[in-house]
Amino acid sequence: MNELVEAIPFLGKRYPKATKWLIIILAAVAPLIAAYFGRSWMRILDFALLYMMLALGLNLVVGFAGLLDLGYIAFYAVGAYTWAFLASPHFGIHMPFWIVLPLGAAFAALAGIMLGFPVLRLRGDYLAIVTLGFGEIVRIFMNNLNHPINITNGPQGINALDSLNLFGWNLSQSIKIGDFQIHYLYLYYYFFLLCVIGSIIFIKRLQISRVGRAWAAMRDDELAAKAIGINTRNMKLLAFALGATFGGVAGGLFGSFQGFVSPESFSLMESIAVLTMVVFGGMGNIAGAVVGALALTALPEILRNIALPVQQAVFGTVILDPEVLRMLLLSLAMILMMLLRPAGLVPAHARYSRPELLKGGA
Amino acid sequence: MIKLLEARGVGKRFGGLTALSDVSLTINKGEVYGLIGPNGAGKTTFFNVLTGAYVPDDGEFVFNGTELPTGKPHLVVEQGIARTFQNIRLFGQLTALENVMAGHHIRTKAGLWGILTQSKHAIEEERLTTERAFELLKYVGIERFAHTICKSLSYGDQRRLEIARALASEPQLLALDEPAAGMNATETTQLKALIEQIRHDGVTVLLIEHDVKLVMGLCDRVAVLDFGKKIAEDVPAVVQKNDAVISAYLGGPKHAH
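Above: the input entities. Below: the structure tokens describing the complete assembly.
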């Protein structure tokens, strides 16, 4: 939180308290603002929160532990498919969320360890290639496991997934209080927001603990980390497993929110998109992951909504398809970022300790 | 005198190159033991084998009466051996304080659950780690840079920080790989005082060094390596006059290779 506040130019340094409250209020009323522009914007906001969870989890692996993972979306897929198997008419199993979500997280963590073991000795480019392969393997499995026994329903995917049901309170049904109606997208928004805040608190606690320091040490100099007594094997596996856990939870939530999963949601492009969010925001700090996810989910949509009317007004017709323009502008944004802010949008120095614990220290 | 570390016939080969062959030496508790030799003599290889970075091909190390595990650096640190590097290897994105705190890792036990729930035990441990790390920074004299990113410290201070980080693992044996390399005369004098202080506080020191004056003034005993073999071991004054050592350093007729 403070990282985020400090990173906002001008305002953050001068009025840290006010900026903090501004962020809190913005987070609280964001769906109301979005609703003003239309339902689709609320949906985008919900997705932004899911991507935040993904970016936070990937940041833990890439930013803290320094393990470049190009197959991160596989864990998202594991979580989503766990939800699809255990809470949909596909197998006729309808388990409550407090079983399915932890199970999805556990399966994802297991997948993380399965990926972690063979890549323990790999670093940099080689690690990236293997993780990329892992992501593709998972997707191809999902795509082909409909034969000879139909498990994943292949490329058609699984639909009619159960929505989130919090102890009898179905989040996908709008609440009516008299004439006033709260749309279900709001409910999801606040639930996801809670999940994101929970993730941030967990990750922050990890970051400033002995585990966070061990990861940072391993990232900065693996040989020295070993030499001061850090069991790098366990720390790497822990990073993979914990990172995957966040992916798994986000995947489960995605399944419940979307009501439909298919392998094409978990392509390599998605992995890269999440990685881009982490890098765009600033690797190795929590605020960066949050800002990166928000920016890269919202910006393309804003562009899409602006580009169409502008072209129509200026040229009378649509010359450039917004989809084309979107990739173009995104690439342009990345190039500008690399030139102007190579450390990311929020290049705040991440802390790995709590100096306030020092009594009378400097 | 109590034996702290004993190397028994340690050998290490890299393909056809014999980096160490049949090196045996004994380090006693409380002494400063020097390991010298010309470039490429195998001093750093000895360090790497000792600290578990390499697996030796022959021989073994006995530390405090038990055989040291090979190829498992973190277990060696747990036994009580800490090291520094010839070319400084700090954790670049951490502050000086955090570097030292990371060095304390092996002596802390907080688990995932304790960290996530911020249990009393975990917080207390974290507080102790922080305070201990700050004391170690004071000990080596760089506490004013506690919250500075370590990369922006001066060269000499980085060397001191690396020693503080090694001390954070509460070692009985501190292995320093050329700590005075690249230091000026003042810094070397200060370093000498620091090493003497460390010895005084009960930590045995194993020192690889090129600075002959430092080695001769500091070490209780010195071993000389040449082409992976130990050619001499004695108090500095005797080693200095040893013919094999002189010819190893200066080249000479007795030095047949």
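Note for the figure: The interface with chain B takes residues 202, 205-206, 209-211, 213-214, 216-217, 219-221, 223-232, 238, 284, 349-355, 357-359, 361-362 of chain A (CB under 8 Å).
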